[in-house]
Structure formats: structure tokens, C-alpha cells
Design goal:
Shape: flat
Helix content: 55-70%
Keywords: ANK repeat, Nucleus, Phosphoprotein, Repeat
Largest sheet: none
InterPro entries: NFKBIL1
GO biological process, one term: negative regulation of canonical NF-kappaB signal transduction
Main location: nucleus
Distance between the termini: 44 Å
Subcellular location: Nucleus
Length: about 375
């Protein structure tokens, strides 16, 4: 078997500007992430080839083609990410250079000295209201500065920074034009970021809609169960005869109220959209997968993927439930999506967390075993 494919950072010509360092770091970071994904894909492919050691040469050749295609896809994604990151960094640095003159911290010492000279001129001018009312302003000149500690008139104290305190003094109108304008930070959003944000917003809106619908369904179920319990209580209290008759027969277990046809159709549509959606994500986790459970909420444990839950999920959208071919086609469709060879090759490498990856592997394996058992039993009928 070929060694693990790796990718080295692309060689770049000597760059005389100061951007070469951060560009190199960006390439190295993305390349390291790519090499990790390539290593995981190689281990998955190696395990699959070991299982298929006695398989036909055509099947092993197909596995090898799929593996090479996945490697090319990962490298292409890495190249695109490098280009996007470098372009974004160049735009941010270009914008920073263009707006650096507007930084409030760039006030020169000459401007400070000029403002102090203006203040002294105002104080010494005969027509100045400060000089005309010198008795009123025997206290420190910047007493009205925005400070929470009052200045003492008995103990001489140095005024605070004239740049900061002069804005609240009587002469502030004379030199208020020297106040630097605030810098507004603009966010630079690349097309890839915008597309990812819109996709996430759409999914979040969709999830919220289905969550509200699920809450309405659960509320209706609770209300109907309360009415049913109230009716049973009133019936048992009305007659001892009916109570004795009921004791001769076992209690009927609570029957779960099924989802409406509209809710089932919406759930199936949402799950089909999830299969399409996860194919475009760079990373995956347990909650991203459309687990075959008839519920708008994702099961949080693999133990919830029971035979009863999967059977209910299979038959819920079918109108002709007694048609053998319809049920068989439904089972085959789900088996193709959850088959371990296809599922693990396509999705497991995109799960970064190892514990999460093992959890998804076990959950998908449980679903595949249930579906295969059901198909075998259905063929035997």
C-alpha cells in the first residue's frame, strides 16, 4: 500500500515585504490540518482494505479510486482555504495602512505643545473671560475636568493632561476642532465566510421552525394524555362494577399518539436536506446526522437507536405499507446511506473529536445492522 500522502507548504519566492512571515504561518497551519486529515483518511482506507482482503479485484480497485478521489478533494479544499486566508489578510492589512493616520494615539508632540500654547494665550489675553474673572479662577484651571476626586484649593496640585481635561473647560470651544475623529472598524467578510454564515443562518432558522413544531406536537400529546387519564379516573370512580371488570383484564399500555402526516412529511424533507447539507461541511459531529428516529429532536445517545424506533421511522412516510416492493425499496434506500463502507469513508474523517467519531461509528453501525436484519426478515416473508 502506498505511504501516507502528505502535503508540504507551497514554496513561495523571496518576498521583500513584511507579509512573508504571516503568509508562511498561514500556509503551515492549513497544511498541518490537511496532513492530519490525510492521515485519518489513510488509516480508514487501510482498515477497509484489510477487511476486503478476499474481495474481488474490482471492488478493491473501486476502494482505491474512492480513496484517491478523497485525497484530491482534501488537497483542493486546503488550497482554496490558503488562497482565501491570504486574500483576507492582505485586505485587512491594506485597510489598516490606509486608515492608520486616523488613530487617536498618533497625536504628535508638536500638536500637544501647540494646544498648551493656545491655553496660555487664552489665560493671558485681557479680553479672555478667564483673565477678566481671574479671582474666580484662582483655583486650578482644570478643576472642571471629568474626575471623581475634587482638587484641593489649599494644596497646589498639578493639572491633569491638558489634552484630556481641556474639553470640559470654559475655553473648550476654541480648540475642540483638534479632537481626533473616532475610527470605525469595518469587518472584511470573504465570499466563503458569507456563504457559510448564510448557510448556518438558514439551518438555524429551519431548526427553530422544526423545534417549535415539535414543541406543539408534544404539548398536544400531553394534553390528550391528561384528558385520557381524567376520563379513566372518572370512569373507575363511577362504578365498582366497572372496576371489577377491569381487574379481570390486563391494563392496556399507553399508545403513543403518532405524528400528523404533515409533520412526518416535514421531518423526512428535513432529513433529506441534512444529507445534502453535511456533504458540504468541513467538520461534522453527532447532531449533524439525520438519525432514523421519528422525532424532531436529535437522539443524544446511541441507545435510543432501537429496533422499534427504526421500524416506526421506516413505515411512517409510506402510504402503501403492505406493498412488499415499496417497503423493500425504502429499506434499500436507507441501507445505502448507512452502509458502514460508504458511511465511514465519506463522513468519519470529518469528525475531529475522536470520542465523537467513535460514538458516530457505533451509532451508524447499530442503524446498519437493524436495517439489514429487517431486510432479511422482509425477504423471508
Amino acid at each position: 500500500m502506498d505511504p501516507v500522502p502528505t502535503m508540504s507548504p507551497p514554496a513561495t519566492p523571496f518576498d521583500i515585504d513584511h507579509d512573508a512571515t504571516w503568509k508562511k504561518q498561514t500556509r503551515e497551519r492549513i497544511t498541518n490540518n490537511l496532513n492530519t486529515l490525510l492521515q485519518e483518511a489513510f488509516m480508514t482506507h487501510k482498515a477497509k482494505m484489510a477487511k476486503a482482503i478476499f474481495a474481488a479485484p474490482e471492488i478493491r480497485h473501486q476502494f482505491e479510486e474512492e480513496y484517491q478521489q478523497e485525497i484530491r478533494h482534501l488537497k483542493q479544499l486546503a488550497e482554496q482555504e490558503i488562497q482565501v486566508e491570504i486574500k483576507r489578510g492582505e485586505e485587512e492589512r491594506k485597510w489598516s495602512k490606509e486608515t492608520s493616520w486616523d488613530d487617536p494615539n498618533d497625536i504628535t508632540q508638536a500638536l500637544i505643545e501647540e494646544q498648551i500654547s493656545i491655553l496660555k494665550h487664552i489665560k493671558s489675553s485681557p479680553s479672555s473671560p478667564i483673565a477678566a474673572n481671574s479671582h474666580e479662577y484662582q483655583k486650578p484651571f482644570f478643576h472642571e475636568a471629568t474626575t471623581s476626586t475634587p482638587l484641593s484649593y489649599d494644596t497646589p496640585s498639578l493639572p491633569q493632561s491638558p489634552i484630556t481635561d481641556s474639553f470640559s473647560s470654559p475655553a473648550s470651544g476654541f480648540y475642540s476642532s483638534f479632537s481626533p475623529s473616532p475610527v470605525s472598524i469595518l469587518s472584511v467578510e470573504s465570499p466563503a465566510d458569507k456563504e457559510a454564515r448564510l448557510r448556518a443562518e438558514k439551518r438555524e432558522k429551519q431548526q427553530e421552525e422544526y423545534r417549535k413544531r415539535a414543541e406543539a406536537i408534544m404539548s398536544r400529546k400531553r394534553l390528550e394524555k391528561q384528558w385520557s387519564h381524567w376520563g379513566e379516573t372518572m370512569s373507575s370512580a363511577s362504578s365498582t362494577t366497572s372496576a371489577s371488570e377491569d381487574s379481570d383484564h390486563p391494563a392496556t399500555p399507553d399508545i403513543a399518539i403518532p405524528m400528523s402526516n404533515e409533520d412526518i412529511a416535514n421531518l423526512m424533507t428535513f432529513h433529506e436536506q441534512q444529507w445534502t447539507w453535511i456533504a458540504s461541511l468541513p467538520h461534522l459531529e453527532w447532531t449533524d446526522f439525520p438519525w432514523p428516529v421519528l422525532s424532531f429532536s436529535t437522539p443524544m445517545r446511541k441507545e435510543e437507536l432501537t429496533l422499534e424506533a427504526v421500524v416506526q421511522y421506516i413505515f411512517a412516510p409510506l402510504k402503501a405499507r403492505h406493498d412488499r416492493n415499496v417497503v423493500k425499496d425504502r429499506l434499500k434506500e436507507l441501507i445505502m446511506k448507512w452502509h458502514p463502507d460508504r458511511f465511514e469513508t465519506k463522513y468519519l474523517a470529518l469528525i475531529v473529536n475522536l470520542r465523537e467519531r467513535e460514538k458516530v461509528r457505533e451509532g451508524a453501525g447499530t442503524v446498519a445492522r437493524i436495517l439489514n436484519d429487517l431486510l432479511g426478515k422482509w425477504n423471508d416473508l
